[in-house]
């Protein structure tokens, strides 16, 4: 594995990354592995083999990586993942809540209770329940951090058909600040990364090539982001050595797409 992140900053630390089977979460899991962490990578809905999900890892890196899968939109999803976490890592220093998606572009008049439940269960409820359930483990850590994944759409409202997804991300951004305030006395920092338009399966699914090309032109840095562009922000927010005085913040990673 080639990685721009080469250090032992996270050596001995235990990290859970959700939605790490592809896209941003996969790049984040790889960055934690490259910096020495033990990682439980939740790869998404379907169980994946180690070589299939993270091909070509060196043996030393491989033995620091465990994989698991479960539906985080399901009522029992967070509990299942937390049980696996206790069995595999036995404790936790960093929780990265990253699993999420739009679950379709649904026009405002077509939004119904079922769509509301699907979008909010995955993008908001799973973050709430995983964070709450991880707290007993995080309280044992001298380097505890939660890093959530929100979205530029939490502030802009997103593009048509994404109203519930965008609102769910805004929920998580506010939940981030609330938990940060509440957990600061326990030494647990809570922050979020807010990606702009990052080229992953998310946009291959929900945006046309024409829309993406127009977006790239409108971005001050004149390109779409990559998962690797996001990974450094997660490492920064997870490491007390780098961001020990940062909590309750949302770090925007968007090439200048939104400045305010
Ligand atoms: N790409 C962007 O431009 C962008 C912008 C702002 C925010 N974000 C956010 O960044 C995060 C990662 O997105 P991405 O672009 O990397 O998307 P992605 O490539 O589609 O990856 C999404 C990940 O979430 C997992 N996931 C989806 N539904 C799930 C469920 N019901 N239960 C468990 N896991 C589930 C997926 O697993 P499967 O492989 O099984 O589907 C996958 O691992 C998401 O929270 C997304 O909302 C992305």
Please give a structural write-up.
The protein is of the alpha/beta class. The chain has a single domain (14-253), classed as 3-Layer(aba) Sandwich (Rossmann fold), CATH 3.40.50. The protein has eleven helices and seven strands. The chain has helices at residues 23-34, 50-53, 59-62, 77-88, 113-138, 153-156, 163-183, 201-206, 209-218, 227-238, 240-243, and strands at residues 14-17, 38-42, 65-68, 94-97, 145-149, 189-195, 250-253. The protein has a seven-stranded parallel sheet, sandwiched between helices. Strand 4, helix 5 (113-138) and strand 5 form a beta-alpha-beta unit. Helix 5 (113-138) packs parallel to helix 7 (163-183). It is globular, with a radius of gyration of 17 Å. It starts with 13 loop residues before the first strand and ends in a 7-residue tail after the last strand. The mean pLDDT is 97. The structure holds NADP nicotinamide-adenine-dinucleotide phosphate. NADP nicotinamide-adenine-dinucleotide phosphate binds next to helix 1 and helix 8. Residues 19, 21-25, 44-46, 71-73, 98-101, 122, 149, 151, 195, 197-198, 200-203 line the site of NADP nicotinamide-adenine-dinucleotide phosphate. This is Ketoreductase domain-containing protein. GO terms for molecular function: oxidoreductase activity. Residues 13-196 form the Ketoreductase domain. Keywords: Oxidoreductase. Belongs to the short-chain dehydrogenases/reductases (SDR) family.
